[in-house]
Amino acid sequence: MRYPVAETAEKHTKILSAASALFREYGFAGVSVGKIMQATGLTHGPFYNHFESKEALIYESLHDASEKALAAMDAAADTPEGLLAYLHGYLSEEHRDAPGQGCLLAALASEIAREQDVRSVLTRHVVAMTDKLQRLFPWRVKKNARGKSIRMLSTMVGALTLARAVNDPQLSQDILREARDMIEANPLIARRVAREI
Amino acid sequence: MRYPVAETAEKHTKILSAASALFREYGFAGVSVGKIMQATGLTHGPFYNHFESKEALIYESLHDASEKALAAMDAAADTPEGLLAYLHGYLSEEHRDAPGQGCLLAALASEIAREQDVRSVLTRHVVAMTDKLQRLFPWRVKKNARGKSIRMLSTMVGALTLARAVNDPQLSQDILREARDMIEANPLIARRVAREI
DNA sequence: CATGAAGCATGATAGTTATCATGTAAGATG
DNA sequence: CATCTTACATGATAACTATCATGCTTCATG
Questions:
Q1: Are the CB atoms for A55 and A63 separated by under 8 Å?
Q2: d(CA B137, CA A7)
Q3: Which residues 25-44 in chain A have a CB closer than 7 A to strand D?
Q4: Could you say which DSSP state residue A164 is in?
Q5: Is residue A121 part of a domain?
Q6: Range of the domain at A64
């Protein structure tokens, strides 16, 4: 039967968000088209009414997740305090334990490196994140602001990835804490943190 | 027919190294048992004469690759100059473009996070790398040496991962360069670098 | 309101993959 | 040297998966 356009559109976005969550949690190869459709309450049949292929779904779902993440970052980190809270949340145990709802880069970067088509999405995401980091620096660093934001992002992604991969809970905590301390040890940030306390 | 034990042992290690290289390049799900055996010049048949399962191969090949990598790190970075060269090599375009021969963490960390059995291998690898980094610091940092080595490793892994995932060659280079600069900007290292120039 | 088209469920298909089965011939072992 | 064992190649199997085919029914459109 034919369905109302509004419902169809709703299902479409539901597929997108289910897919991006499952991909982040289990990897691209770890989740099948059938599982994704099942997660949205549909059967595997209508998948190809919504997307060209699994590859296309990967692309579109990551694009969607990227925009959502950047919007959330905008909303959360629009003040210096917000930015600090955002960085803390990024390097928290909660974020570590919820990859399906978390950062695309930490969850999928190494797999995306192998999927030619999707690399442009990730590139835009990296550029946008570093741009936002620069703009959000409350102290408006002038000297090599872009470089500093790249360094910060690298450390954040690496620490979160390692904290997830490691088996030892104490080590995992230490990795997250060190990354937080590193960010706060930045003399420009340390001043701001001290003022808050 | 039956084969000489020496040849069989040689084939065994050949499977191990082919597997770890292919896994790093294409991911665990991206390479089949058949492809691995083919890469060693055998057919898929005798695989189960050598390993219990693909899962067991993953574990053993990563264990093997980890030990080799740590030995190579020991050999290359036994002097301050060696350590600097090692860090430079880690953050080089050559390393970025040869994941199959490169660091386990940058190539597979996010996938390993999902494979319970293998996490202990990666944990040992992280601990060994940070231990070596601490011991190799020529200046023998006293204050929070472990923390500093964890931060350094996080930045290295994150930068290499992002440099691989990104589509834009200039951005990729910039990420690597910033990570190198960050390490060398450490005042303790800067002195050493300056002395070299 | 009549007609056409779109989205759904069910089911089919072809390819891939991990793993197992079998026969063989030569090294290992006594 | 006789026997046994083992690693190999070939081939089989069962599960999974991406994608396609079909028919139904109801919304959308004029």
A1: no
A2: 61
A3: 32-35, 44
A4: H
A5: yes
A6: 59-196
Residue recorded with tokens 């665990």: B28
CA of B45 to C1' of D11 (A): 10
Both tokens of B157, joined, read 């892994």
Number of domain units in chain A: 1
pLDDT at A81: 81
Q: Confirm whether A135 is domain-assigned.
A: yes
CB–CB of B162 and A126 under 8 A?
yes
Number of cross-chain residue pairs from A and B with Cβ atoms under 8 Å apart: 155
CA distance A157 to B185: 20
A121 contact partners, CB below 8 Å, separation of at least 6 = A59, A62, A63, A66, A112
Residue range B61-104, pLDDT digits in tens? 999 999 999 999 999 888 878 888 999 999 999 999 999 999 99
Phi, psi of B40 (to 5 degrees): -100, 0
Q: Is residue A113 part of a domain?
A: yes
Report the predicted TM-score, pTM, of the whole model to 2 decimal places: 0.94
The amino acid occupying position A49 is N
* Rounded distance between C-alpha atoms, residue B138 and residue B117, angstroms: 35
Q: Rounded to an integer, what distance in angstroms lies between the CA atom of residue A47 and that of residue B192?
A: 59
The enclosing domain of B77 has a CATH number of 1.10.357.10
| Closest nucleotide to B45 by C1' from CA | D9
